[in-house]
Amino acid sequence: MGKKKTNFLLKLEPAIRPIVLALREHGINTTGSCGHEMWVECDSYDSTSDFSTIFAVLHDMGYREFTIEHKWEVRKTDIARSLIIQINEKA
User: Fold this and answer.
1) Which value, to the nearest 10 degrees, does the dihedral of the CA atoms of residues 12, 16, 17, 20 take?
2) What order do you get walking across the sheet with 78-87 strand by strand?
3) What is the per-residue pLDDT for 15?
4) 8 pLDDT band (50/70/90 cuts)?
5) What is the CB neighbour count within 10 angstroms for residue 42?
6) What CATH number has the domain bearing residue 65?
7) pLDDT digits (tens, 9 = 90+) for 10-20
8) Contact by Cβ (8 Å): 20, 31
9) In degrees rounded to 5, what are phi and psi of residue 33?
10) Position 1 pLDDT exceeds 90
11) Cα–Cα distance between 37 and 17 in angstroms, integer?
12) Which helix (H) or strand (E) element contains residue 84?
């Protein structure tokens, strides 16, 4: 495992680490997370595909109660789209 990836892993809180890693392994670009409140924020390029991937990943990990919110942030002439995943239970 490369040094850059190891440093990234060490910055993740242990409770959220497996979720972030699984999402990234399935092509979801995570941009923030919190292990205490159990949420992950990620970029959204194709919301239909992203929702399907996130659902499948979390479901395969044993999660049955979670929320996925689609956030649009308008910045003058640009729109930044992201997804916020809130885990409501332990797997």
Assistant:
1) -100
2) 30-34, 39-43, 78-87, 66-75
3) 95
4) confident
5) 21
6) 3.30.1360
7) 889 999 999 99
8) no
9) -160, 160
10) no
11) 13
12) strand 78-87
Hey, what are 84's tokens? 């916020």
- What pLDDT, on a 0 to 100 scale, did the predictor assign at position 70? 93
The strand pair at 30-34 and 39-43 is best described as: antiparallel
Q: Would you give the DSSP letter of residue 66?
A: E
Please give the tally of structural domains in the chain: 1
Other CB atoms within a 10 A radius of the CB of residue 58 amount to 21
* Residues ≥6 apart with Cβ < 8 Å to 81: 43, 44, 45, 47, 70, 71, 72, 73
Query: Mean pLDDT for the chain?
Result: 90
User: pLDDT tier at 5 (50, 70, 90 boundaries)?
Assistant: low
Q: How is residue 35 written in tokens? A: 């292990």
Domain span holding position 59:
3-87
Do 28 and 53 form a contact (C-beta atoms < 8 A)? yes
